[in-house]
Hints:
The complex is a heterotetramer. By secondary structure, chain A is of the alpha+beta class. Chain A is 36% helix and 17% strand. Chain C is an all-alpha fold. Copper (II) ion binds at residues 269, 272, 318-319 of chain C. Dinuclear copper ion is lined by residues 148, 151, 193, 228, 230-232, 236, 239 of chain A.
Amino acid sequence: MYLKSFSRTLARIGTRALVMASPLLLAGCDLNFWRMDGHQSTIDVAGPVARSQRDLFYITCDVTFVIFIIVASVLAYATFKFRARTEADAHAEPPPQGHGNPLVEIGLIAGSVFALVIIAIPTLKAIWYTYDVPEAEKANAYEVTATASQWWFKFEYPKEQINGVGPLTTGNELVIPAGRPVRIQLRTADVIHSFWVPKLAGKVDMIPNRGNAIWMEADQPGYFWGQCAEYCGDSHAVMRFRVIALNEKDFAAWLSAQKEPARVVAAVAAGSPQAKAQFASYKINEYGFTPKWDPGASVTPLENWQQQQFPNKDENPALIAQGRKLFQEKTCIGCHTVRGHEGVGITGPNLTHVGARTTIAAGLLENTPDQLARWLRHPNQVKPGNKMYNGGYIDPKTGKANFTLTEEDITALVAYLSSLK
Amino acid sequence: MSSSAHASDAGPEHVDNKFEIFVQLAMLLAVITGVEIVMVYLPFMKWLIVGGLVTLSIVKFMFVIFYFMHLRWDKAFCTIMFFIGLVLATGTVWALLQIFSVGDSRPLTAPEPTPPPAAVAPAVAPAAH
Amino acid sequence: MDATVKSHFIGKEEKSAPRPRLLYRPTAKTGLMSWLTTVDHKRIGFLYGIFALFFFLVGGVEALLIRLQLMVPNNTVLTAEQYNMMFTMHGTTMIFLAVMPLSAAFFNYIMPLQIGARDVAFPRLNAFSLWTFVVGAIIINLGWFMKDGPPDAGWTGYSPLTSRLYNPDHSIDMWVMGLQLLGVASIAASLNFIVTIINLRAPGMTMMRLPVFTWMTLVTAFLIVLSFPAITIALVEVMMDRLFGANFFEVSNGGMPILWQHLFWVFGHPEVYILILPAMGIISEILPTFSRKPLYGYPIVVFSGACIGFLGFTVWSHHMFTTGMGTVATAAFSLATMAIAVPTGVKIFNWIGTLWGGHIQMRTPMLFALGFIWMFMIGGFSGVMHSAAPADAQQQDSYFVIAHFHYVLIGGSIFALLAGIQYWFPLMFGRMVSEFWGKLSFWVIFVGFNVTFFPMHFLGLNGMPRRTFTYDSNLGWNTPNFIATIGALILGVGIGIYFGVMIYTYFKGEKVGQDPWDGRTLEWSIHNPPHEYNFKVVPTVHARDAWWYEKHHKEEIAKEAAEHAKAEAAHGGIHMPFASIWPFVTSFGILIGAIGVSVLDHDPRPGFWGTKIAVSLLGGVVMFLGAYLWALEGNEGYHLHLEEEDGHGSAPAAKH
Amino acid sequence: MSSHAGTIDHHHDPSTSTGIPNKKLLMWTFLASDCMFFGALIATHLIYRLHPPPGNPEPKVIFNPGLTSFSTFILLMSSLMMALAVNAIQKGNLKSMRLSLLTTIFFGCIFLGCQVFEFTEFVNEKHMTITNSILGSTFFTLTGTHGTHVAIGVLWLTLMYIRSFKPASATSGSWLGWAFVHLLVFAATVVLSMHVVLDLVFSALSTGFNAGMLGGFIRGNFLPVAGMIIGFGALRWLARSTGPVQFDEHNAVDVESMGLYWHFVDIVWIVIFTAVYLLEYI
Ligand code: HEA
Ligand code: HEA
Ligand code: CUA
Ligand SMILES: [Cu+2]
């Protein structure tokens, strides 16, 4: 009787599951997700630290998988073998009332301990390995300081001092040398954040009043996705960043370019700025974007980044000059630094070379004129609660607007920001 | 039941003695406290004094729980019960102090200089100066 | 041990002398008043259960909203703030308002029956625990109805996100105060359970004869009384910071936010065992019953339970592997965490041993129990993967953790609790859930659960962080998220069926007689639904599976019971505690005070009697009066004489 | 069973499985829990002492060893009195128990008074507050929580003391009313006298103690002082003997459980005294 209802149940569930799954198949979903080869994969790794962590994970997987197979087979066997199959069976005399066997127990405990030892030894090794740059390579390690704020990252290069200004500072895109260990000091300006570039290394938290550090190394030059991994308030989900690893030569070139003050675009042709407000409009509450780099595209993300380093072709100097003026007038300078130009603020990311980044707003938006305009138009919709809105556009105490940007202003500002290569 | 027998032998004599035990114990505790207060000003090695203070406190502690709180006369189970909490609490406090005394836990605001923050710092003994 | 002796410690007989008006003992047996004043452990257990199931549905709806938001990339079902409130409330609700009270419901209802007691040691304290739990739940959820909104700092409430600077509104105050009260309620209830199990066992019920569920109740109660103080202190510190400007977590004055994490997890890890041990206890009751065999290796199962409880206090920092604790601490906590796999494994092995050679009856509770073993094992294995600290650096705060703990929490705790409801339903209400619908609900839940949470392992390893309200479409997370959402809907349907069937059965289900499963422990020896006094005669226990033994030694037991009945009658009959309104009043005072402290604004006007202070004080006074009158009314009871009652008693002679 | 004989075995309760009375077991379990409670608080304090931020006040400069030693001694003596109270009621000696309880309450109040004095001094003269430094936060929270425990203990002792007057023939509601009156008078008297004594100490500290100052003080505080004296008179009257009461050796377990709590508060202070105060002086 149980059997009958049981099989009936199974049949029903089977059909049900099929019905449920069909929209999924129809939607043409990528059913290869189990390959786990996304931009933030912890499996498809690109550096020694992440590799040691993944290999340890594989060991834990193997050991537990073997145990699972054994235990599960015994469990399944017991369940089917000792099932009461008939009504009579179920009401038969109870089986012998045995109470256990100490030898079996001790054997199983010993087995479990043994399995754990197999996991424990590589674990200990990896703990010491991932803790700090290996002694032999210490001298070669490159030092960077990363400071998180709600909801963006500041990167400082203490070795690259700029006269009278302090260390080289960038935001949201960390450029590091490839093939060389990098030691990153992790700091935070407000709450707890966590620094995570899955392909290069597991995360380490950025905790107030605590001097954490992480080390990582990229095997090859590349473009890596990172994300804040500790819940840090409203926009935690969109607190992202990128790491760009360059070979020694490119890295040196990049450093010297970055140390330059902001670019000034000379006015070639005089003429009134042609303001055009023709950017796409966005729905309220529409976060994020769909970038063009999917695996298999013709341009790799790194190539894309490299192209971004060159000045745009059709720059409009008048518009840019107008933008530069607005940058001052609209008090952007209070929060942002554009070294060599007017800004001195440190509340927001350093924008000296913002045009040379591939993303803005902490890895959230692609750095295109469209997206820049969108950011300037609605910083709060793109990134709820961020300080550029609360504090920049509106005064959080009074709730009054500090200033407004017209579409013309935005066009000019976008032109200016895009020119900052 | 065995308890009746137990009751009579643990009964009256003990009860009468307790008054004196309690008074004497209180005197003893007062003296120990006095010794402790004097001890901190003695010019001995730090570890010796800390050790002495901790020992004396434990002695006081034990006297109070076993006499004033009757653990001595009660079923052993009460002692077990209390010690489960006491041991776990002591262990947890100890572990927390250990964790916080390694160099990695040094807060950034701590006064000692050592410029590279996460560098190895000497472990500091709890609350000892 | 002579259980019939009336002790002076219980209180003296009161000649029904006229009492002060305020101290009249409530006598209502039905109606609202009877529920507010009840001290009957079964009614209290029932109320716990109802509240817990209600909050389970609330938490479930929150979960579904979470899943809907994550169904497709860049979705806009919820705003960022709403999403953050949702997962905070989902976690808090499920853990503190669903699983814990549901376990407490079973502790209350089943445990005294299993040890042959007529009630818990402190019946009024028990009522107080219940109402204080309700008050805590109200305070935590109050935010939904206020402009401040519910808390949104995660169920772990990591400082400094909970400070005034980053969360200026009252939502965090409510969270802090609510958790504080839940702590008070849990500790009070657990103290009660500990004393009950240690002291109120029926004659012959030695510790090593306790049913395993009762043992796990005991271990859980110990975990609660020993771990909750840590979070209490942590919450006090947050409260001092928020209300009085103290500096515990204030970085500008040298505070260290990391301290919160330590204190939270000193509580938090034992807490997860608080969630699973009762479940393991339930499983250890169901498997033997439906295998018709005693539990394999009883002493080892008990010992491993205690062992898990103890080890649970030594591993808290495995939630903090990414906080840069240094090598030695990380290694120590990593190894200690792995060690827990051993006692847990022992339990799994012994459960399989119980099945081995049995006559396994595939009834609904058994299905859930077997499902539990499978799912919990998978969850446990991903736990072991976490315990390898460097590997955890990649998994921490990713969906891999979400997968891990939903496997142990749903596949573990919830499966076992659902099994327990099915298992004890006939005892509680005298009706039995239909096999077909019960099994259907199991399979839908089982499938839905796995479809929801298995893909999350892949999501986590593919780098999706938890607590993110949105994600981009180019990271390879779309499909698993979509599948998970479909799974959650299936799960929802399954739970819907389960609840629907339960409600139907409560009103219309098939009636069953006593002991329908051929049970092994004492709760099956009584009439169902149980009488107020549980046992007509306090049973005498001769063996581990006491009821099984009684069923096989009928004459001997019948004789013994008759003697006991006589002795008890000579002592004035069955002693029952009076009902009382004062625990409720005390909790009500706490409610007022808590609202004063956590919800009201500081009164800007000068003077002592700002509304905040006034309301808080008023609450304090009501609470004090409640407690004082509670103390003054005394703990006397009355006596029941069963002659006039119907024939269904507990005496084994009277049954079958 | 012995319970029906003249003497009661106070360490055995035949109605429970272990023989330990329920209340006592409850209290011991609660104290086990409270160990974790104070453990977490003390750990917090010590951790911050381990890592004092710059500009944190130096405890050595702030603490007042004389006062603390005095209040430690007082608390020890209160523990003694508490033990004697339990001893007395176990023998059925109600009068002696009441006296011991009152002395315990008295010592408890002195301890609390010392703490109020200490806190006032730290805040007003040493300028350490809960907000201006981490030491202030941890110190005031830790010792304040302990003080709250003491205050709850005093309240409990008072309630127990009042309950010991419940007439054997409690046939009407009148006793309940009197109990409330008793409690209110007790509370008012305690608060008033602590107020008066502390004021006296403060003014003695500022002007020196002599007869003239005392006269001036009494004149200046006529109402509180008079209230205090009336309060004591009323308490004496409320405590007059009115025949047999419902409180005897059967209640010993109540008193004993309360005693366990009180002693525990004392041993917590033993730990605090060493860990928070004494260790700072080495
Ligand atoms: C019911 C609740 C429950 C249970 C029982 C467990 C059980 C375990 N948990 Fe889990 N855990 C949680 C609930 C639970 N957990 C929650 C809620 C979180 C997240 C909190 C948050 O951040 O919000 C968490 C997070 C969590 C982390 C932190 C992850 C992170 O954030 O980085 C870790 C790390 O070690 C961990 C480990 C373990 C281990 C080792 C066990 C072990 O007890 C498991 C033991 C069981 C087995 C191993 C299976 C059976 C055993 C055998 C068949 C024997 C043979 C096996 C071996 C020898 C391997 N858990
Ligand atoms: C016991 C604890 C418990 C339980 C039972 C659950 C149950 C579920 N949880 Fe759980 N969850 C947690 C504890 C729990 N969770 C915790 C502690 C967190 C971390 C919080 C934090 O980060 O702070 C978390 C976080 C969490 C997340 C991650 C959020 C994030 O980090 O961004 C997700 C995402 O999918 C999720 C999903 C679910 C789902 C789908 C269920 C399902 O099992 C729910 C099933 C129930 C229902 C579906 C509702 C009942 C049915 C009806 C009302 C019938 C009507 C409905 C229909 C017909 C559809 N949970
Ligand atoms: Cu920063 Cu999350
Ligand atoms: Cu844990």
